[in-house]
Write a structure and sequence with these properties.
CATH superfamily: PPM-type phosphatase domain
Number of domains: 1
Largest sheet: 5 strands, antiparallel
Shape: globular
Strand content: 25-35%
Radius of gyration: 18 Å
Number of helices: 7
Strand order of the largest sheet: 1-10-9-6-7
Length: about 260
């Protein structure tokens, strides 16, 4: 197993128009006795058109933070891809139930997107619900996750083409979320942490509307990034860039650098 080291940072900004930041983020990197360094990053975006998005996103973040602090230490010695997926399926289902119950008590509908990444023992797992995203950036920019939106669903089904969808007002409508239905169906993605340097980026949709993959690649060059301060500078640059271009949504990004040095 290649031993990799990780460092990272994140920013969440309410943007230029919204009064409340309905995004929530969390990042933790820790040393372990038998798994080397581990990292957990989560980006959640309260779903627009519903109520109390900031409650929905922060509830999900708090649940992941609690799992990391209290449950993970008890199971980490026997952790595998399969057992982690079972753990997170239970965790995400619990978050979904909590939000559904809260909504019923308050007489409202609320929900959140969720992109969560856990790195351990030379492997990673990503859980995805909604349209926040995870990318791997090295020589190329690779989108790991698939959006749960009307656009993606109709395009995959062949019912509409790209040109039709770009003009359709429903294109950004969320088709899956946490807290919006009795059951939740996350997608899971697994991968191996290779020997090459890379940067993982998790972001809410507010970061990517007005910036291209080529611009992401120009800003994020793993071979030139050596510390958290440099990652922080990149995060600030990306957020400020999309704000200057008129992005009206909340904007969140987490960057994690994987290095074999």
């Amino acid at each position: 197993m290649v031993v990799m080291n990780y460092f990272g940072c994140g920013i969440s900004d309410k943007g230029i128009k919204r009064i409340v930041n309905q995004d929530s983020i969390w990042l933790q990197i820790s040393e372990t006795n038998n798994k080397g360094q581990i990292a957990l990053a989560v980006v959640c975006d309260g779903i627009g058109g519903l109520e109390q998005g900031e409650v929905a996103s922060s509830t999900a973040i708090e649940a992941f933070s609690d799992w990391y602090s209290n449950t993970l230490p008890e199971i980490i010695s026997d952790l595998s891809d399969g057992s982690l997926q079972v753990e997170w399926m239970r965790l995400i289902s619990d978050i979904n139930a909590r939000l559904m119950q809260y909504g019923k008590e308050q007489g409202i509908r609320l929900g959140t997107t969720m992109t969560a990444m856990f790195i351990f023992g030379g492997r990673y797992m990503i859980a995805q619900v909604g349209d926040s995203r995870a990318y791997c950036i090295n020589d190329e920019v690779t989108q790991i996750t698939e959006d749960h939106t009307f656009y993606t669903r109709e395009l995959k089904a062949g019912r509409m083409n790209r040109n039709q969808l770009l003009l359709d007002p429903r294109k950004n409508r969320i088709t899956r979320g946490v807290g919006i239905a009795d059951t939740v169906q996350p997608d899971f993605y697994f991968g191996t942490v290779g020997p090459e340097e890379c940067v993982w980026m998790l972001c809410s949709d507010g970061l990517r509307h007005k910036i291209t993959n080529d611009e992401f690649r120009d800003a994020i060059r793993p071979e030139n990034i050596n510390n958290c301060h440099e990652l922080q500078t990149i995060c600030e640059h990306l957020v400020n860039e999309v704000k200057e271009r008129g992005e009206k949504d909340n904007i969140s990004v987490i960057l994690i650098k994987a290095s074999n040095k």
